[in-house]
Amino acid sequence: EQVFRWGSHQLKRQSQSLDVIQSSGVIKQDRPSLICIASIAGTLDYPYASLYAKSKRAMIATAGAYRAALIPYNIQVNCIASGYIDTQALRDLNNGDASHKPFIISTPSAVKHIMQAIHDDVELAVFPSSMRYITNILNHLPQPILSWILRSRLDKKH
Fold first, then answer.
1. Which of 20-34, 68-82, 86-100, 124-138 has the least mean pLDDT?
2. Helix, strand or coil for residue 21?
3. Whose CA, among 19, 86, 90, 157, lies 20 to 30 Å from 96?
4. Max CA-CA distance within the chain?
């Protein structure tokens, strides 16, 4: 939240100075943007979600609140909630190979999705589409069924 607050303050100042310049007819630039990176894990409303998933869910909600608050300042706020992206960091977390991750996408493909979402001013960009459809379906299930599915399939056994 502190980063959102700091970023929005900086962008409001930038937006105000652009308004002055634009009103004099000197330049025309794209509107300022605040972009946050969440995770598709934050789109599931699951009571036993990990701390990671719950913090990403909070980030998505915070981005939505800032989007509404910054409309009067003509500041764009987008939240990116991707599935697995084939990065070196993900491979490092998975003993050098993340190919077993469901619906994993390449970094260039992820960049394309992100840039398109920013260009189209998508409030919450969830990709890849296969993961978006699955999470959408899961979120429409009754809580007891969702809990049973996720606890039996996704939770790590200790």
1. 20-34
2. helix
3. 157
4. 64
Answer whether 46's CB lies under 8 Å from 146's CB: yes
**CB within 8 Å of 107: residues ≥ 6 apart:** 85, 86, 87
128/138 Cα distance (integer angstroms): 16
Other Cβ atoms closer than 10 A to 49: 18
The fourth-level CATH superfamily of domain 26-153 is NAD(P)-binding Rossmann-like Domain (3.40.50.720)
- d(CA 23, CA 25) in angstroms, rounded, equals 5
Nearest Cα residue to 124 out of 35, 7, 55: 35
Domain ranges of the chain: 26-153
